[in-house]
Specification:
about 250 residues; mainly beta; 6-stranded antiparallel β-sheet; 1 helix
Length: about 250
C-alpha cells in the first residue's frame, strides 16, 4: 500500500493561497487589503479573520471623531396658507413660511401638488417680513415649468411677480390656489402671556376580548363536531359517508 506523506507546510501554503482575494492598487505588495477572507481562526492566531472588508464602509473616516448631534433648527413662522378645492372639492391647504416655499409635484416640495400638469419643480413662492414695518411681502417665480403660472388669470413670465392676499394662483392647467397671508400684528394676534400648555397623553389601545376558545364548533357547519360522523367522511353535499376502513375503486 502506497503511503503519502504530506508535510504540514504544504497544507499551510495551500490555505494561505486561498486566504483572501487580493485587489491590486489598494496598497504596496506587502500591504494588500483583504477581501472576503476565508481563513480559519485557529490557523493563524496572529491574524484573526476579518470577514468581508470593503474600503470606505467604516462608521467614520480615519482620524475623524464622532460628531455631536446637531441642534434642532429653529421653527420658521407660519405666515399664511394656500387653499384649493380643485382636486375633489373637499378642500386642501398648505402652510406658507417665511422664506422660499417650493411648489411642485415631488414629495420634497413644501407645496406638493399631485397633478399631471404640475412640473416636479414648478414654482417658488418667496415670503419676507420687513423689519422696519413688519409688513409681509410675497412674490412667485416660475422655476422652468412646462405649463406655466397664472395669477388672477394673467400668465406670468420667468420673472418674480408680486402676490397679494386673496390672489388666485393657477399652477399647471388645473390647480387653482387661493393665497391667504396673515399679518398677525395687524389683526391683533399675539402670544398669550399666561398660556398654560397641557401635555396630552397618548391614546391607550382598547383591549379587544378574544372569542371563546372552545374545543368544538357549534356553528352547524360541515366541520362542526355536532355533525361529525364516525363512519367515514362527510361529503360536501351532506350525503351519506362512505364506510371507512377500505379502498373503493372506480368502476
Amino acid at each position: 500500500m502506497t503511503k503519502y506523506n504530506f508535510k504540514p507546510i504544504y497544507i499551510y501554503n495551500l490555505i494561505m493561497s486561498s486566504d483572501s482575494t487580493k485587489v491590486p492598487g489598494m496598497g504596496n505588495n506587502a500591504d494588500y487589503q483583504d477581501f472576503y477572507s476565508r481563513r480559519p481562526a485557529d490557523m493563524m492566531p496572529n491574524r484573526p479573520p476579518k470577514g468581508t472588508v470593503v474600503p470606505g464602509m467604516n462608521k467614520y473616516a480615519p482620524k475623524v471623531e464622532e460628531q455631536a448631534a446637531r441642534p434642532a433648527a429653529p421653527q420658521v413662522p407660519v405666515v399664511g396658507f394656500l387653499y384649493s378645492i380643485s382636486r375633489q372639492g373637499f378642500g386642501e391647504y398648505w402652510p406658507l413660511h417665511i422664506g422660499s416655499n417650493k411648489i411642485g409635484r415631488t414629495a420634497d416640495c413644501d407645496v406638493c401638488l399631485a397633478e399631471q400638469t404640475v412640473s416636479e419643480r414648478h414654482a417658488a413662492l418667496n415670503i419676507k417680513q420687513l423689519k422696519s414695518t413688519r409688513k409681509i411681502l410675497a412674490s412667485i417665480r416660475d422655476e422652468g415649468s412646462k405649463n406655466g403660472i397664472y395669477v388672477n388669470d394673467e400668465e406670468l413670465d420667468y420673472d418674480a411677480h408680486e402676490v397679494k392676499n386673496h390672489d388666485i394662483i393657477t399652477i399647471g392647467d388645473n390647480y387653482k390656489l387661493l393665497v391667504l397671508l396673515i399679518d398677525a400684528e395687524d389683526m391683533g394676534l399675539s402670544i398669550a402671556e399666561n398660556f398654560q400648555p397641557v401635555e396630552i397623553a397618548p391614546a391607550e389601545e382598547e383591549d379587544v376580548p378574544f372569542p371563546p376558545m372552545g374545543n368544538h364548533d357549534d356553528t352547524g357547519s360541515l366541520y362542526s363536531s355536532a355533525n361529525r360522523v364516525t363512519g367515514g367522511t362527510v361529503a360536501m353535499d351532506g350525503s351519506a359517508p362512505e364506510t371507512s376502513g377500505r379502498t373503493r375503486f372506480l368502476e
